[in-house]
Design a protein that fits this description.
Blueprint lengths: L4 H5 L12 H133 L14 H5 L1
């Protein structure tokens, strides 16, 4: 049975000949009722505090769960970003390597072309040198022959070479 402060205040006892002093009993009951009221208020206040604490704890646990979920999502996002960055870096590196190979191949082709062109230029230089030598030799031979003819003419000798003389009209009719 539950007893309240009011129950203690309204309690009536039967009198008996050798019983307790009614004033002292009333006084004790009043003190017990006052203490019971204080304890009931404190108990109620503690219950309210406990409910508040339980509510706050529940909120904190909910917030902790949200934070944990947010942290997990952030970690997943970070991992996703790292993976995407790694893949992008691999693509960039592969592209750069491919371009580097192409540049190297182009450089080799250009080098080969230049080497061929240089060889062709050297051959052409040798050919031109030989042509110039041949032309110079022909000119020197012609100059020598011309000098000989002039000497012979000066000496009064008839020219042995007739390619400078005008053509004979009789021979041309033939």
């Amino acid at each position: 049975m539950k007893i309240s402060a009011l129950d203690l205040r309204q309690a009536q006892f039967r009198l008996s000949w050798r019983g307790y002093n009614p004033m002292e009993v009333q006084q004790i009951l009043q003190m017990a009722a006052a203490e019971l009221e204080t304890l009931v208020r404190e108990n109620e206040a503690l219950r309210n505090e406990l409910q508040d604490a339980v509510g706050k704890l529940s909120e904190k646990r909910e917030q902790e769960g949200l934070l944990r979920d947010t942290l997990m999502e952030a970690q997943k996002a970070r991992q996703g970003l790292e993976e995407a960055a790694r893949r992008e870096a691999e693509v960039v590196i592969a592209d750069a390597e491919m371009k580097a190979r192409e540049l190297i191949l182009d450089a080799h082709r250009s080098l080969n072309d230049m080497t061929r062109q240089l060889a062709d230029i050297r051959k052409e230089k040798i050919w031109l040198r030989n042509e110039v030598r041949s032309g110079v030799k022909t000119l020197i031979d012609w100059l020598d022959t011309d000098e000989e003819i002039e000497k012979e003419e000066e000496d009064g000798q008839e020219s042995r070479l007739h390619f400078f003389a005008p053509p004979d009209p009789e021979q041309a009719r033939g």
